[in-house]
Each structure stands twice: as structure tokens, then as C-alpha cells.
Design a protein that fits this description.
By secondary structure, the chain is an alpha+beta fold.
Length: 100
């Protein structure tokens, strides 16, 4: 899978360096993935939650952060839509947030 944009993740790591290892592991796993449907994501990330609009919510850094992506399964592209703390996540709509 191709990740668009990793720069958003790099910016988050600059602000929250404690997530670096978790994000790098997530990136490595996603780059190797070949997801064709939401169930494929859950096979790789059992705690990921599918929501509307082909979006997935991932728990990052032992559930301290949330990462929201939108997946274009036919094109094999994962779009980063949001990464933040629980309190930041509580202030957004995960179904519509777009690169905060």
C-alpha cells in the first residue's frame, strides 16, 4: 500500500516524539500490506475500527493516540486524515476530518 502523506506523520512525530516507534512500525506494516477490503485491515491490525467512507481508526502508542486513514482499496492508497491524542480526537468528526 502507498501512504499519502507521510509528512503528516513526520510532523506528528516532531510534536509527539513518543509515537515515533509506533508510527514507524505502522508504516512498515502498511507498506507491505495488500488490502482489498476492510477485513484485510483487521487481519493485520486486530484492534483497528472501520468507520464510514472507507475510513479506519487505529490505536497508536498503546492506545494513547488515534490515527485515521481513508483507504482506496482498488488503487492501494492509504490517505492520512488525522493523527492526535484522545482529547484532539474527541473534538473532530472521524468520518469527515481531512488532514487537520
Amino acid at each position: 500500500m502507498k501512504i499519502i502523506t507521510k509528512r503528516t506523520l513526520a510532523n506528528a512525530i516532531e510534536v509527539h516524539p513518543e509515537i515515533k516507534t509506533s508510527i514507524n512500525l505502522w508504516i512498515a506494516k502498511v507498506k507491505e500490506a495488500n488490502w482489498e477490503r476492510p477485513n484485510d485491515v483487521n487481519n493485520d491490525f486486530s484492534k483497528a475500527r472501520t468507520i464510514k467512507n472507507n475510513r479506519i481508526v487505529f490505536n497508536i502508542n498503546n492506545n494513547d493516540y488515534r490515527l485515521i486513514v481513508q483507504v482506496n482499496y482498488p488503487a492501494k492508497i492509504v490517505y492520512i486524515k488525522f493523527i492526535g491524542t484522545h482529547s484532539a480526537y474527541d473534538k473532530i468528526n472521524p468520518e469527515t476530518v481531512n488532514n487537520y
